[in-house]
Amino acid sequence: MKIYVDADACPVKDIIIFEGTKALIPVVLVTSFSHFSNVEQPSGVETIYVDAGADAADYRIMKLAVKEDIIVTQDYGLASLGLAKGCTVLHHKGLVYTNENIDQLLQTRYLSAMARKAGKRTKGPKPFTSEDRENFRELFKKVISL
Q1: DSSP label at residue 53
Q2: Residue 75 falls within a domain, yes or no?
Q3: For the residues of 59-116, what is the DSSP string, one character each?
Q4: Is residue 83 part of a domain?
Q5: What is the distance between the alpha carbons of residues 61 and 55, in angstroms, rounded to a whole number?
Q6: Angle of helix 102-117 relative to helix 76-84, nearest 10 degrees?
Q7: Number of domains into which the chain is organized
Q8: 27 φψ region: left (φ > 0), alpha (ψ -120 to 50), beta (else)
Q9: What's the CATH number where 48 sits?
Q10: Which of 46, 47, 51 is closest to 34 using CA atoms?
Q11: For every one of its 146 residues, what pLDDT tens digit does the chain have, with 9 covering 90 and above?
């Protein structure tokens, strides 16, 4: 089992790295070259850099992930692909993507995109809170201990 993180805008990388390495599960951060960093990661953490193009990180994660891996992403499209591969997929606000909820999430995303295309304004995501952070931490600890 490995943990793959869609790392460009992930606000819980520190939790994933701390808890994942503590559980001796390899962590793979997939991020674009535009987020390059010389920061040395702890043992058990690998950073893979991809082009800055749309969905480049998603494609790399899907190329690498196998059944029973864990993927952390806020991208519903990547979540859908990960579920189809038999991965456990988590959102950084403490949501587990499932075959039961992914269709509704994708439909909502599609309807919002169509509304924006028609010139309407849509609400963005709610701000990330400390409660979201703790919800993710508890969920993540439970998932990696299974």
Answers
A1: S
A2: yes
A3: HHHHHH--TT-EEE-S-HHHHHHHHHTT-EEE-TTSPEE-TTTHHHHHHHHHHHHHHH
A4: yes
A5: 10
A6: 150
A7: 1
A8: beta
A9: 3.40.50
A10: 51
A11: 999 999 988 999 999 999 999 999 999 999 998 788 888 899 999 999 999 887 899 999 999 999 999 999 999 999 999 999 999 999 999 999 999 999 888 888 778 888 888 998 888 778 999 999 999 999 999 999 98
The answer, as to whether pTM is greater than 0.85, is: yes
Give the Cα separation of 102 and 108 in Å (integer).
10
| Helix (H) or strand (E) run with residue 47 in it | strand 45-50
Residue type, 72: V
Distance separating alpha carbons of residues 34 and 23, to the nearest angstrom: 30
The reply to whether 52 falls in a domain is yes
Q: Which domain holds residue 31?
A: 3-98+129-144
